[in-house]
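Reopening this ticket.

The earlier resolution said the output was attached, but the attachment link was broken on my side. Pasting everything inline this time so it's all in one place.
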Amino acid sequence: MDILLLASVNGAPSRMLDHIAACPEEGFVWLDFTREREPNWAETVERLCGVRLHEGHVRDSLNPAHPSFFDSTGDYDMVIFRGLAPEMEDEQFSTHPIAFFLFDRLLVTVQPGESRSLKWVKERLLSQSGRVPSDPAALMHMVLNAMVDRFLALREPLTEHMEVWVDRLLDPRNRFSEWYQVMGHRSQLRRLEILCDEQEDAIVTWRNSSRLEVGENLYVRYTDLLEHIRRVAKFASSQQHEVEGLVQLHFSAVAHRTNEIMRVLTVLSAIFLPLTLVAGIYGMNFEYIPELHTRYGYFVTLGGMLSLSALLLGWFRWKKWY
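Inline output:
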């Protein structure tokens, strides 16, 4: 458990505490728990502020598969927000939930223990760089903003991944067969879009129904945060349409290439068909075929076949069939 004292009296800097017995009269406290290592974190909060947390909320905070969500009681607000996991596995991003419990002078976070966003916020607060949040809602905004910024940064690798698919799918020399990877990329974008919708619903519901007072300045900052979430959702939606269009373009290109091959084969068949007819006529086993005994019959016939081929080829080109 990490304990941070923020916005303390007389403008004292934020600092890390080893232990705490009660909520301060000035400023507020941030308690950061690790979900796997501290499953009984709710007992610590109850001893500190005298508020018993709802059992369902405690279970939700320990659920690694819980979606973004908001709920509240008369004593606190609970916001669960899914953020990016530290690393991508097999070019697939994964997410984990962070639970926020907002009291009057206390913010509790329950995280998986590997959140880069929370680590960055702690380092920023302890280094005294930038504005120090004045209340738990402002601190939650700082953490959420860092989490959403990671989703915004995710757009670049996803776009680069998409460019790789464009090159591979539209390369006529490449016989593409890795369709499961393309569909996996599309499913990943769909998951991102659904995730953003859940995040937006949780934040909007909390902002409109919170028991805490959300000032105008903080309201604007949360509105800006929602706009960032919508930008990520819009990106995921547009990338899905691009994948669908790319697949259709790939099959159109394959069909066009097939048509080109069939046209060449058809032209060749049309040229050799009369030649085959001539060869078949003079290959018949009749006793009397006058041309067979002509001294220059072979050369005349061969020249006629070549001329016929050239004539047919010229006619096809004039018709723009080849």
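Reporter confirms the inline version is readable. Helices lie at 41-49, 55-61, 116-126, 136-169, 179-209, 216-282, 297-318. Residues 216-282 form the longest helix (67 residues).
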